[in-house]
Amino acid sequence: MYSDNDSFHSANESLDGDDSFCSLTDTLGDTLRTQFNQSDKLFNVCHINAQSVASHYSELFETFSNMNVHAILISESWLKPNLLSTSYPLPGYVLIRNDRLGRRGGGVAIYLRSDFSYKALAASPSHQACAEYLFLEVSVKGAKAVVGVVYCPPSVDYFTDFESVLESIGSEYAHYIIMGDFNTNLLAPNSPRSRKLLHLVESSSLHILPLQATHRSTVGDDSWLDLILTSDLSLVSSHGQFIAPGFSHHDLIFLSYILKPPKSKPKVLHRRCFARMNVDQLLNDAAEIDWTPLIEADSVNDKLEIFNNRVNVLYDLHAPVKRVRVKRPPAPWMTELIKIAMRRRDRAFRKFKRDRTDENWAQFKTARNRCNLMIRNAKRRHILNNISTSSSANIWKFLGTLVFINLLTPELQCSYHLYADDLQLYRHTTVDDLVDTLDKVNADLAVVKNWADRFGVAVNPGKCQAIIIGGSRNIIRVDTSSLPPVIFNGMTVPYSGNVKNLGLQMDTTLNWQPQVAAVSQKVTNILRFLYRLKICSRPV
User: Fold this and answer.
1) Which listed site, 128, 225, 279, 296, has its alpha carbon 20 to 30 Å from 32?
2) pLDDT by residue (tens digit) across 19-65?
3) What is the CA angle 220-223-228, rounded to 5?
């Protein structure tokens, strides 16, 4: 089942020798960078039981930034739909998720390098108490590999689910890389769960790569729960594990597989720069445009094409498209002192592994808590520096880049929609229950007010609107004058008969007439403007 030629690395190997492995110069990120430094022609995959991506995002960013890792598999992501993927980006990666819904914890995710093409093959049901998994087909230089992450809750008999998903994927793939927390201790191979898992893996023509204990227990023995499964042992260049106390009691496990990945390409955007545009010259050139072909065109489509071409020529002259290379932004609050604290924390954990005394455990907890406190304080200073001298618009833009904006949504009773600096609350109800629904809306607005006060954000109630939407028969029964008011920060939010939602005009019955009228008026104004330009461009 195992190959004698496999290159295996473990954090435990250095514990019996000198203490150079525990040097203060090495964080987990430094160790991985060294491990994958000579792996340019390999497909490198890591797995970590994160126990909350949101809580350990700084550690995740520091560990995997600027690294030659092509796929980062995460079990126990603890992500929920209200936590946006854009809040936890890793530069150069795309985040694919399968969240657990209706219950706490759980969830699996994959950070895949953005220059790989992929498609989803299988994902576990989000609402059921079963094995949680996510399988992708990843294209690597023409070869297709199955990359999967699995999390099996301790009390769940996951074997049938796992076997079914392997059968559903089929046998047409030559390369399988599956990692995860299976919650089955293979250090006890004769236990019923271990025998079931080993039989399932063998019947699926897969192989489990050897590791030492991957889960550290403060009471009792350590266990081998985190596994690496692959289909071809001859293509395994190296594999192993490193302790990751910044995440959880689980080790980080990794695999270098002999599939040559494509070279990482820098992300390039094409943007127009309007900052240095000469507006006066733009207006002069616009006045000289010959609109005769537009006026003489027979169809609306021809008129639109001529208009777009004229405007694009104007823009190309005064605001040409430029290539902008996007650089990888560092974690702005990460300092050298924090990195030193991370190294001291990791060293304290290694010391505890060698000598499991209460004193060593207390020293590790002190180092860990100090590191977490330094990260929190650094984030707060970064936030304070960015909002203390900024305008309200810039503050909201800045808040959109931070994780803590999502601390608001779990406390809301109503459904919600977040877009940039806009928050919409909505709730389905009947006419008879409308008063109770408005009470819940007001309660959520109080939550928003408390959140805004907590983070020093000013909300303008004058820009807020409330609207009741329903069928014409139900709307007739609603008397807004007899309803309790919608209150935010002591100010009444008026009931409106028409609101604008992301550019779309909406009325109380969702009739298209307001939108059609608004678009027609806009087109009329543009045509009048073009007519004035035509008159200005006539020779005198």
Assistant:
1) 225
2) 333 344 578 888 888 888 755 678 899 999 998 888 888 888 888 87
3) 170
Report the percent of the chain where pLDDT is more than 90: 16
Task: Tell me the HSE value of 255 on the side-chain side, using a 13 A CA sphere.
Answer: 31
CA angle in degrees (0–180, nearest 5) for 11-90-123:
85
CA distances from 459 to 327, 425, 456, 488, 500 (A): 33, 15, 10, 9, 18
Rounded Cα gap, residues 72 and 254, in angstroms = 9
pLDDT digits (tens, 9 = 90+) for 89-102: 888 888 999 998 88
Query: Which residue(s) pair with 101 in the sheet?
Result: none
Q: What Cα–Cα distance (Å) separates residue 13 from each residue in 3, 153, 167?
A: 19, 30, 37
Helix axes 336-354, 57-64, angle to 10 degrees: 90
Cα–Cα distance list, 496 to 449, 480, 489 (Å): 22, 10, 19
Mean pLDDT value across residues 123-141 = 85
**What's at 140, amino acid-wise?**
V
The amino acid sitting at 303 is K
Cβ contacts of 444 within 8 Å, gap of 6 or more: 412, 413, 414, 425
178: tokens are 């599956």
Other beta carbons within 10 Å of 407: 14
CA distance 156 to 182: 10
Beta pairing, strands 236-242 & 7-10: parallel
Tokens of 358: 């209460």
Q: How far apart are the first and last CA of the chain?
A: 91
Beta bridge partners of 138: 118, 145
Q: Which CA distances in Å does 384 have to 55, 61, 380, 388? A: 20, 21, 6, 6
